[in-house]
Each structure stands twice: as C-alpha cells, then as structure tokens.
Design a protein that fits this description.
Helix content: 55-70%
Number of strands: 4
Number of helices: 21
Largest sheet: 2 strands, parallel
Mean pLDDT: 74
Low-confidence stretches: 1-59, 460-464, 466-484
C-alpha cells in the first residue's frame, strides 16, 4: 500500500538559475511526476513545476484575464467535495496535449468503428461457448480519448467523492468550535479551494489514464454506462505496437476482455454496487493528517492558493490501522481479484484455440498489472489500494479449477450471491475450495418455497391421503366411518 495514498509527491524545486535552469531540464518539467507511475502528478505541458499552468496556460499577458476568471471560479465554487467541472476541463486539456511518445488524440473514423464493432460481436460469439452468462453488450462503441473522459467521469465521481469528503469535513474540524464562526469565510474559501485542487488533481489523473486505457473496464470496475462495450482504437494500436503480434489478434483479445467484463457486470446485478460500496467503505477509513491541515489553516494566505496545493502534494491521507479497515481492504482486494481472475480465465479459454498469440497476450496483460498499469496506479493514487498481481493469478487458477471440477454452470453459479464467492482464504487454498462439498442451493430454495406455499394453501386430497375411491375412502368431513 502506498504511504501517500493519493500519490502526491513533493513539488519539484525551482532551479537556481530560473528560466535558464528550466531550459536545461531534459524532462521538460517532469514526466517523472506526471506519467503513468504518478497519474496525479503534472506532466509535460500541464504545468510541471507550476501546477496552475494547467489551468492558466503560459501566463502571458493575454491569458491574465482568463487566469483571474478561473481563480474567481475556484474561490466561488460551492458544490461538493470535488469541483468536477474543473476536473473535466483539466482532463480534456491533458488529453489534447497528447502522450509522452507524441501520440495525439483523434476522432474515430468509420473504418475504426466498424472494426471495433465486428471485434466485439465476434468476441461475444466466442464467449458463448465458455460461459453460461449471455452477452451483456447492448451497444458497441469506439471512443476517442476525449470521449472516454466524458463517459467515465460519473464513475470517477462515485469513487473519489467519499475520500474528498473526508478532507472537507476535516477542514471544518481543525479550528476550535468557538473560532469556527469567526473563521467561517476562511473555512468556506478553504473548502472551495480544496474542491478546486481535487478537481485539478483528478482531472490530471483521468487525462493521463485516457492515454493508456484500451476499454471501459481496464481498472476492473465498469466506467461506462451499463451495457455499453467500448474500445479505444488509438490506444489498442499503441498497446500492440511493440508486441510482434498481428494487430487483428490484439484487437480481438482486448475485445474478449471487454465483452467478458460486460457479461459479468450485466448478469450479476449486485456486483457493481458491491464493488463501489467496498471502495466507499474503505474510503471511510481514510483519515486526514490534521496536524498538516492545521498548519495550512493557520498560515493560509488567500493570495497564495498554492499553499493548499502543496499540502495535498505532501500527502495528508493515511488509512486507519484498525481491524475494520483491514477487513474492508481485504474484501475490496478479493472482490477485484475475483472479477479480474474470472475474466482472465474465461478469455483464455475462449482465445487459446483461436488466437496463436493468446498466451503471449495474456502474459502481457498480467505484466502490465504487475508493472503498474492503469488499474494498480489508479487505485494506489486514489485510495491507497493496489490490485496485487499475486491475487489476480490465484483467482484465475481458482476459476479454471472450478471449471474443471464443476463445469461452466457450476463455476458461474457462484456469482448468484456474494456469500457464495471464494474468500481471501480460499485464494490461499484454491484446491480446498474447489473440492469441498458443494451445497445445492437449488434444493434449499425449493424446500423454502414449498414451506412458504404450505403455510397459505389448503391441503389437497393427495396431502390428506385421499384417493378419490368414493364410499370406500375417508369421509369428506375428515371423520372415519365410526364418526371418529
């Protein structure tokens, strides 16, 4: 787990020789803080050593009016814990600047849309033979990076707001109660600035991720509207560029992963809320370092809003070391690993006999996780969570073993209820889980249904032992022939 869950590193120092020092910097202000390894940092062109440059541009005289206007918007913001309008603006700006290798966003053409649609539809056909869950894709779409930003922001809001809310509450608690009334305007300004700063950081992160993700489910959570299977053709091409794998196989393999995620989230109705709820439960255990916040409040100068930015960058968030928080983290990690493990196992089963590069592509995806791809880095920077590759591999082996032991229906049937899923202990001992006595929940449901029905209906002739034999049978008043 990251020591600074939001990934806010220390701001880079100003070079002693001013502008000349900046010109000599070969990194141009720091992809080291703005690349995939730190998506909340500020990359080239996004401000680097001046985080406000992402909003205020190059700060030439022509930009000053816009700069002061945006500063006014920051100070007047009265919404939730994150200024999502600003987040969207920063994300779009980051996307427009392109990735570190010079790749620029572009509108998706008709040919690319057709290719994505055909790949996703073919992937669904292949999956029909390896899972009992029917297709979960109502529509298929090919997105540009900017379109991915627009579509995914509502999900990011659901993920990030609980943590950001902790900061907003802490800002009102750092002053003594008798001083809070007097400092009301200052606290309000701090909260407005906090919402703006969170918006800036999150917008930067989402913009960087838009240059990496290949679909709507790269982080193991559904970021697109339900039933919408999506791929980003530009990023798919970049993903397969150096793999020595035919591009059509790369597209089909990634389409299989997207379509498999869509099936799972569409046909396990509780899963989406279960995962987002686990994230929220974990976020509630994040505490704010109030000593740092007190220093900021005590020394806050409204003419220097970057003070709050520095506090965020230095890391004010630490997970509480409590049994409840550890249990929350374990549940979330296990749930994410089970989702990714199921997708990994099902996709490999569908691809291994059809794609010559299936094994290589599978290993590439696993290494991408281990080396800090979108999933690990996003969760590590947002809420201090890393999806550990060991858990992913264990989960994939468990699902594959379940297929061998119980068949496709038996494996997929475990998704009927969260209590039926393997636990973290089961991932440690997959053979024990696979081969333990399997409860027949269908029989239990039948018995419960019959018991409920028996409490409301009248007994039938068969229930009473009647055979309809006329006078030779029991009388209809329930008495025998002797009147008893």
């Amino acid at each position: 787990m990251s020591d600074t869950p939001f990934g806010f590193g220390l701001p880079p120092e100003e070079p002693e020789d001013g502008d000349e020092g900046k010109k000599k910097d070969p990194t141009g202000g720091g992809q080291g803080s703005g690349g995939p390894a730190n998506p909340f940092g500020f990359g080239p062109g996004a401000g680097g050593d001046n985080p406000f440059a992402a909003m205020f541009g190059s700060m030439n005289p022509n930009d000053l009016g816009a700069a002061f206007q945006q500063l006014g918007q920051m100070l007047s913001y009265e919404g939730g814990p994150v200024n999502w309008d600003m987040a969207k603006q920063i994300a779009r700006q980051t996307v427009s600047q392109g990735t570190t290798d010079g790749s620029k966003d572009a509108s998706v053409g008709p040919a690319e849309r057709t290719s994505v649609d055909e790949a996703l539809r073919l992937a669904d056909l292949w999956l029909d033979g390896v899972t009992s869950m029917p297709s979960g894709s109502v529509t298929t779409v090919a997105w540009s990076r900017a379109e991915w930003v627009e579509a995914s922001l509502p999900a990011w809001q659901q993920l990030v707001d609980p943590v950001a809310e902790r900061v907003g509450l802490a800002m009102g608690d750092v002053l003594p109660e008798e001083m809070q009334a007097m400092a009301g305007p200052l606290i309000g300004m701090m909260r407005s600035m906090g919402g703006a700063m969170f918006g800036q950081q999150i917008g930067q992160a989402v913009g960087v991720l838009a240059g990496e993700v290949v679909g709507s489910t790269d982080i193991g959570l559904p970021l697109a509207p339900a039933g919408k299977a999506a791929l980003l053709p530009l990023n798919v091409e970049r993903f397969g560029k150096d793999l020595s794998v035919p591009q059509d196989e790369v597209l089909l393999y990634l389409a299989l992963r997207e379509a498999a995620h869509q099936r799972l989230f569409a046909h396990v109705p509780w899963l989406r809320s279960h995962l987002f709820g686990a994230v929220e439960a974990y976020a509630r255990g994040i505490k704010v370092d109030t000593s740092k916040l007190e220093d900021v409040v005590g020394q806050f100068d409204p003419s220097q809003p970057e003070q709050l930015q520095d506090a965020l960058q230095q890391g004010m968030f630490q997970p509480e070391d409590t049994p409840e928080q550890k249990a929350s983290l374990a549940r979330l990690e296990t749930a994410l690993a089970l989702v990714e493990g199921w997708v990994d196992a099902v996709v490999h089963e569908a691809a291994k006999s059809r794609l010559t590069s299936a094994d290589a592509l599978r290993e590439t995806m696993r290494r991408r996780r281990a080396s800090g791809g979108p999933a690990e880095q996003t969760f590590a920077t947002l809420i201090g969570l890393q999806l550990r590759p060991r858990r992913l591999r264990d989960a994939s082996r468990l699902w594959a073993s379940l297929t061998d032991a119980r068949g496709v229906d038996g494996r997929d049937g475990l998704w009927e209820h969260p209590d039926m899923l393997p636990t973290a202990q089961d991932l440690d001992d997959p053979d024990g889980f696979v081969h333990h006595e399997q409860l027949d929940f269908s029989e239990l449901d039948k018995m419960l249904g019959e018991a409920a029905e028996g409490g409301t209906r009248k007994p039938s002739a068969e229930d009473r032992g009647e055979d309809g034999a006329g006078d030779d049978g029991p009388s209809t008043d329930g008495k025998d022939d002797d009147g008893r």
